[in-house]
Specification:
Blueprint (H helix, E strand, L loop, with lengths): L14 E6 L5 H10 L3 E6 L5 H7 L3 E4 L16 H5 L4 E4 L1 H9 L3 E3 L5 E9 L15 E8 L2 E4 L5 E5 L7 E4 L4 E4 L11 H12 L8 H16 L4 E4 L4 H14 L3 E7 L7 H12 L3 E6 L1 H8 L5 H22 L5 E3 L4 H4 L29 E3 L7 H10 L4 H4 L19 H20 L8 E15 L2 E14 L7 E2 L4 H14 L3 E6 L13
Parallel strand pairs: 1-2, 1-3, 3-4, 4-11, 12-13, 12-15, 13-14, 15-16, 18-20
Antiparallel strand pairs: 5-8, 6-7, 6-9, 9-10, 10-11, 17-18, 18-19
Helix pairs in contact: 6-7, 6-12, 7-12, 9-10, 14-15
The structure holds xanthosine-5'-monophosphate.
The site of xanthosine-5'-monophosphate has 14 residues, from loops.
């Protein structure tokens, strides 16, 4: 796998470089910057030689937080060129400590560790606080640190402090160097985004020229240049990423693109029809809709182990995709909706280099033997940017704003054996649940909501009769990336209404439960 391209479409935009020291929240720095129209990239601190930085030509550099301690001999340092370049630098948490240490200050360990919400007193002003924090104010921030600076490097002064963090915000306006002991990138620092914007806009001189309209136009040119007269196939899943990738590529190369939609029979209610209606009928994209539900459901017959189910679905998906692609007479390029979080090179917890790049666990991943060049027009975008691009491309909100849906589909929401009947039953439950969520105006406040069909039968009473039917579970979580999740706190009234409708309208279901497990320790999906 090649490292993220330093080259282009962003080449003409103003750029900020973020050097990662391994913090859990480094990605949030990039997100905050991009929200204000500033293109930025995250590189491991130890993969930033002078030549690479010069070629990238950033207008400023941000040093992220990280788990190491500068008081330890082997701990990571910013490359010397960062300070030799004359560029503005903002150090956050560990980044502040290494900045102070490398510029001649003193950092000591052994102080009380401070985590979470804290209040600091603003005792001065600087470009970072301009128009955001007034001198004399007391402001909320989010801290996460063990070490602290005990002596400032020459040229610096304190702008904000607290008892636990005497150097909470430090500044050297003359050299455009700043450091925060707190994390401005997290939402628990309420004005953090504005502080970061002051760094990029006021200090570094960015104007916020990273817009989806500009990205779209540049990417269309880039796709044309890459593909030339070649043919591209794209596995469409109905999800946001592949949909946006397909429409963008289609805009660039028209009928040189063919999309293949492998319908495994495990989609939600009405979804396959919607994919065809949207992409073939509305966007005029060449689309092969292969109904392979008999094949998938046949091979899943009798299978109850979750991993087995995933393996079977993954294997069949590739087989069917290849079959359809061969019928087309082959293609030169394979389009994928890979996103930036999948390609950011990660820094390991020890601060050492790491070559691990998160792998896609998507059905429809690149088949091993396929000799095609990848077209990945979304490689530089975060999920929210992909949604913004989708809106820019006029893709219907129902697709652009859709909750994530796993590649193996409903199969991993039906513990036990999956059959056409159980999938149909679950589809009916799920669509009532989602309809009620939409009607209540809650859809966009939830990361993912879905129903699970339980492999148990329970006794109930309806009218004068006894029932002995299946139970289902409802799940709804909030999350920012699917890595951790909280249960969505529906009102009892809402849950009762949904339960009532399901039991009354779906024959075969007589009991509804609500899953109140967060992640961790649970996972979002049940299998
Ligand atoms: P878990 O269940 O691991 O899910 O907490 C985290 C997120 O990943 C989605 N998910 C998948 N997505 N293929 C996918 O494309 C898969 O095999 C898969 N398994 C889980 C899940 O829906 C949630 O958003």
């Amino acid at each position: 796998m090649t490292p993220p391209a330093d080259s282009a479409p962003a080449q003409r935009h103003e750029r900020i470089l973020i050097l990662d020291f391994g913090s859990q929240v480094t990605q949030l720095i990039a997100r905050r910057l991009r929200e204000t129209g500033v293109y930025c990239e995250i590189w491991p601190f130890n993969a930033a030689p002078e030549a690479r930085i010069r070629a990238f030509a950033p207008k400023g550099i941000i040093l992220s937080g990280g788990p190491a301690s500068v008081t330890e001999g082997e701990s990571p340092r910013a490359p010397e060129y960062v300070f030799a370049s004359g560029l503005p630098v903002l150090g956050i948490c560990y980044g502040q400590q290494t900045l102070a240490h490398q510029l001649g200050g003193t950092v000591e360990g052994g102080h009380a560790r401070e985590f979470g919400r804290a209040f600091i007193d603003v005792t001065g002003d600087c470009a970072i606080t301009q128009g955001v924090w007034a001198k004399g104010a007391r402001e909320q921030v989010w801290m996460s640190h063990g070490d602290r600076i005990t002596q400032l490097p020459p040229g610096f002064r304190v702008v904000a402090s607290s008892e636990g963090a005497p150097f909470a915000l430090i500044a050297d306006d003359a050299r455009h160097y700043y450091g925060t002991m707190f994390h401005p990138e997290v939402v628990h620092t309420p004005h953090g985004a504005q502080l970061l914007k002051n760094f990029t806009h006021l200090v570094c001189g960015c104007t916020g020229d990273w817009t989806m309209g500009a990205f779209r136009a540049e990417m269309v040119q880039k796709i044309r240049a890459q593909v030339g007269g070649g043919r591209v196939v794209c596995g469409l899943s109905g999800g946001v990423d592949s949909s946006v990738a397909a429409v963008l590529i289609h805009e660039a190369i028209g009928d040189q693109l063919t999309c293949i939609y492998v319908d495994h029979g495990l989609m939600r209610s009405g979804e396959s029809e919607q994919v065809v209606a949207t992409f073939r009928d509305r966007f005029n994209i060449r689309l092969i809709h292969r109904d392979a539900s008999d094949l998938f459901l046949g091979q899943l017959s009798g299978v109850t182990d979750p991993e087995q189910k995933r393996k079977i679905i993954g294997r069949l998906f590739i087989e069917v995709f290849e079959e359809e692609q061969n019928k087309l007479g082959g293609a030169d390029f394979l389009a994928q909706g890979t996103l930036y979080p999948d390609v950011i090179e990660s820094v390991s917890a020890t601060g050492g280099p790491s070559v691990t790049i998160k792998s896609h666990h998507n059905v429809g991943g690149l088949p091993e033997g396929m000799r095609m060049t990848l077209v990945e027009p979304l490689r530089e975008l975060f999920k929210d940017e992909v949604r913004a691009l989708g809106r820019e491309l006029a893709i219907p909100e129902a697709i652009v704003g859709r909750h994530p849906f796993p590649g193996p589909g409903l199969a991993i929401r039906i513990p036990g054996e999956v059959t056409r009947d159980t999938a149909d039953l679950l589809r009916r439950v799920d669509s009532i649940y989602l309809e009620e969520i939409r009607t209540a105006g809650l859809y966009d406040a939830i990361w993912q909501a879905f129903a699970v069909l339980l492999p148990v039968r329970t006794v109930g009473v309806m009218g004068d009769g006894r029932t002995y039917d299946q139970a289902c579970a409802l799940r709804a979580v909030t999350s920012t990336d699917g890595m951790t999740a909280d249960v969505y706190p529906f009102s009892m009234e809402f849950l009762s209404r949904v339960a009532n409708r399901i039991v009354n309208e779906v024959r075969g279901i007589n009991r509804v439960t609500y899953d109140i497990t967060s992640k961790p320790p649970g996972t979002i999906e049940w299998e």
